[in-house]
Amino acid sequence: MSVLVTLASLRALARHRWQIALSVLGIALGVAVVVGIDLAGASSLRGFRLSTEALTGKATHEISAGSAGVPEELFAQLARAHPALAMAPVVESLALAVDEGGVALGPGRTTFTLLGVDLFSEARLRPWLGEGGSAGIWDANLTLLSEPGSCLISAETARSLAVERGATLRLRVGSHFEHVRVVGVIVPEGPRATLALKDLLLVDVATAQELTGLIGRLTRIDLALADDAELAQRISASLPASVSLRSSALRLAGIEELTGAFRLNLRALSLVALLVGMFLVYNTMTFSVVRRRSLIATLRTLGVTRARIFRVIAAEALWLGVIGTALGVWLGTVIARVLLGLVSQTMNDLYFASSVREVHLDGEILLRSVALGIGATVIGALAPAFEATGERPRLGLAVSTLESARKSWIARLALLGSLAICAALALFALPAFGLEASFVGLLLLVLGIGCWAPWFTVRCARIFAPIAGRILGMFGRHAARGIEAQLSRTSVAIAAMAVALSATIGMGVMIDSFRSTFVKWLELSLEGDVYVAAPTLEPGHNRSTIDPKWVEQLTSAPGVAGFSTYRGFATHSAGRPVQGAAVSVNAERESAFEFSDARAEEVWPEFVAGDTVIVSESFGYRAQLGRGERISLETDRGVREFLILGTYADFASEQGYVLLSRDTYGRWFDDRGVTSLALQAEPGVDPDALVAQLRASLPAEQALLVRSNRSIRESSLEVFERTFAVTGVLQIFATLTAAIGVLSALLALELERAREIGMLRALGVTPREVGRLVLAQTGMLGLVAGLLALPLGIAQALVLVLVLNKRSFGWSLDLQVDAWPLLTTLGLSVAAALLAGALPAWRMSRARPALALRGD
Amino acid sequence: MEDTEKVVVRLRAVEKHYREGDSTRRVLDGVDLDIARGEFLVVHGPSGSGKSTLLNLISGIDLADGGAIHVLGRELGKISETSRTLLRRERLGFVFQFFNLIPTLTVGENLLFPQELVGRVGPDAVSRARKLLDRVGLAQRWSTFPDRLSGGEQQRVAIARALAHDPDIVLADEPTGNLDDESARSVVELLQELLRPAQKTLVLVTHNLALGRLADRTLRVAHGKLAEEARGP
User: Fold this and answer.
1) pLDDT lower than 50: segments of chain A
2) A850 → closest Cβ in B62, B88, B112
3) Considering CB atoms only, which of A477, A759, A764 is closest to B105?
4) Chain B environment of A759 (Cβ under 8 Å)
5) Which of A30, A381, B21, B138 has its CB 3.0 to 4.6 Å from that of A274, i.e. a possible disulfide?
6) pLDDT at site B81
7) Phi-psi region of A624 (alpha: psi -120 to 50; beta: other; left: phi over 0)
8) How many Å apart are CA A377 and CA A159, to the nearest integer?
9) Are A856 and A789 part of one and the same domain?
10) Predicted pLDDT of residue B130
11) What's the CA gap between A287 and A279, in Å, rounded?
């Protein structure tokens, strides 16, 4: 009997292929977006992680210092003191292969890692570099030693740059152009060597020192200490104050932590599409249960148990979930390839240099997405399954009767929604809850407001009815009241649409708020008319330097009235990496800062005089530090404590900055470099003309960036727009899924209204009028969804701006709500609904009235 | 012209068949029929005999597979779908077994709906609808939604709706099928009472043989043919 029950049920379900197909598509799109985002994010990070791990080799620790680097004598001392210890000196930098015009070579403007190594020290740390590594590497390495200015590249790199052995490569390293000769092209053997040699320019340590300007210094010393904590402690204690020993893994962990909030934000957004897909499953399963009410009643009358019916419905949902998820996972890998470029670009703009071109199919992500897709489908089907089994076995129960029964749920559902909203508010209000809790809160808020959809729909339909009646006559009135009459179908479609649109509004308002705050900040912080900077290939922070003679020449050039300097540096605080900057202060620069916890006139005198710092808002938020507190920094004179004078607004980097005055920096650090200059033009001097004049005065070997205030502002806004480009793609997917939801609901309504349409046709309503009636109703559905999306979207925007941005990045944004995007969303809602309604309207208008009247 | 004045519906050699799996079932097989203006015609027959099909063909919501159907002088097979719809909305009225009132419109609005379709709106339309509702004894239920009415009441509203736009012919498909005997009789009497004085034609399809006694003529459909039944004493 159980097989027959399943068969009877499946055959009934199979009559509605459209519904099933749309539901599967909804789930597939939801899962695809989740998979796509996760795979793109993880692939981007994985590329960086694997190449870092491969380059780190067997090293467990590193000895490093600030911008000045580690003195190379230290390596010799350590080697003498610990002859058995595996260690190697490293000079590492980023480099760009360029043509004679300075234009980057290779696909996608590849950034190379310039790695300077000592061949004889490498065997125990990076065996792939030593004898027995890839074919020919040992001989080629020997050439590196004998030929200054030579380099090794992998065969893949040689192909991408179209160079061969013996060719000369022009490189941009920091602010200099340099030349290296390719003395060997290596075909890597084994995956580790392949990864390590990818986008790598391998040079001798002495060549690297010349190319980077770190004469007599090293970027770091890599050591393999295994788990010998005691040895680590002894080495650490023997080091001079300016250098420190730390775990190699910390570098990678820092990047993963830094990108965590960005990836979490993307993942949360991708879940919106899945949530919308869940509404679709709920809709389809409810519809399938309603359509089979007669069959279910018959089966129950014949003695089939409730549990059996439940199992049949649940199994159907499970299958929908499995098929939809399988399709979604495949589609997700396709989407990941599309999104990889966008996500990688953002990672490159903000976090780390990496050139990932392939999506890695991460098993964990795929499994998690499969569980998520199937789980969401089953959850979406639970309510209809319970409804099917809860029904008393009564035959021929009219749909209208079921609708009346469901109306009694409106108030209870709204109450449930209110509870969810209260829980969400509690998660937002209490600072003890972290970022993940905020996303749970956001989900509760969306579901909570979604629970109000039936109530809101009824109210809107009642308001629309007389208005529509006045405009469209009885058709309008009928269309508006039909929304209420088929509430179980229409309200789910409206909720799905509203959730998708609200995400658009929420993200839109958040991006607008961010943009307006960012523009205000740019205007405030770009105090100079012209900026000169040493270019960097390291995203997020610039530590390159301008040759001191050019600093002198540029600041005394005709037309320059004044200047201030900026020096970026890296250090550590309590073992954690800190981005620092030393700034010279003048009246213009003082006006470029806005403090959230201090008055400017209190800050500046002390900032210049004492061992004090100011910190950016995001740094203060992450470190939980503010005005009046102290921060310890590793300096060239050892660890020192600095008083924090204030917290300032800054959007240049999400890890934030610690700012010292140039004088304070000079007291505690040996480095005298300048990363960038802000120049004030003399009155009457056109900044663009000054830019041209300064560029012309620079020699060809200097790769300095000379840009006007306006040009920096424009390029900053370009990066800003690129960062949010991926959210636009996600919004399109969420809205597409919602439109499918509306289409699915309307097709369900078409079947349920067949008799009504037949009767209208019998009364003399023309097919065109039927079409208009259906479109009027779908237009109203879209309008209700749009109206519901407005408060939901603004609530999401508030959460994104006031809670999530703060908890993710530590930024305070000014909320900016413009009427135009809201009206556009409302229009989009109506347009999407009308578009989704076109097919059902056409089908209903073509329905043969005689057939429609015959069947119930 | 004179013929059209007297005969409002004319069927000649009308055929209708349905495909059922691999076979074809002839529902109407060469049917001839004339229905005169003001006539009250009852059609009865067993389930599936083609009674409702006959009504659907006369109303133009379905098309014959053979023969010709003239309604109010127009041959339905030779005019467009839109023309058939307009003919239906202007000159025909429909009463269904399941009442088929528009659930989202009030009783009053259900009566205004067919009038609006023919362009009659405003106080005149409201006045006519109110009068009709009064005639069917439901004047107090103007603002009530159909689901608040009993089956008998709903059918009376459906009758009023069928007459609201002043049609020439009313087609009633099992209008008493869902009602008890007493309600059924009162519904048919109401139809007669409203239609006779205005010389409207009524074609009523029913299972209920007893209703035939109230008709001018009774036809039986069986095996695709129409047969006139002799009136009893």
Assistant:
1) 1, 393-397, 856
2) B62
3) A477
4) 94, 96, 100, 102
5) A30
6) 84
7) left
8) 48
9) yes
10) 94
11) 12
In this structure, are residues A55 and A196 in contact, taking their beta carbons and an 8 Å threshold?
A: yes
| Half-sphere CA count of A851, side-chain side, radius 13 A | 8
CA distance B227 to chain A (A): 24
Provide the β-strand partners of residue B17: B26
- Alpha-carbon distance A833 to A828, whole Å? 8
* CB of A208 closer than 8 Å to CB of A116: yes
Residue A131 lies in a domain: yes
Give the count of domains, chain A: 4
Residue matched to tokens 């209809």: A384
Chain centre distance of CA A43:
13
For residue A357, the model assigns a pLDDT of: 67
Q: Are residues A338 and A475 in the same domain?
A: no
Domains and CATH numbers, chain B: 37-60+81-228 (3.40.50.300)
Nearest residue to A571 (alpha-carbon basis) of A642, A501, A482, A478: A642
Cα–Cα distance for residue pair A698/A64, rounded to 1 Å: 33
Q: Which residue has the higher pLDDT, B146 or A385?
A: B146
ipTM of the complex: 0.78
Residues 6 or more apart whose Cβ sits within 8 Å of residue A96 = A104, A109, A111, A112, A171, A172, A537
Distance from CA of A793 to the nearest CA of B (A): 31
**Chain B: closest CA distance from residue A316 (Å):** 29
Q: Would strands A530-533 and A676-681 be described as parallel, antiparallel, or unpaired?
A: antiparallel
What is the per-residue pLDDT across B47-85, written as a single tens digit (0 to 9) for each?
A: 888 888 898 899 888 889 999 999 999 999 999 888 888
Name the residue range of residue A723's domain.
Answer: 453-524+712-856
What pLDDT, on a 0 to 100 scale, did the predictor assign at position A456? Answer: 92
Residue A853: list chain B partners with CB under 8 A. 56, 61, 96
Residue A687 resides in a domain? yes
Same domain, A200 and A88: yes
Q: Is residue A71 part of a domain?
A: yes
B151: tokens are 């089956």
Clarify whether residues A551 and A679 are in a common domain: yes
The span from the CA of A433 to the CA of A477, in Å, is 48
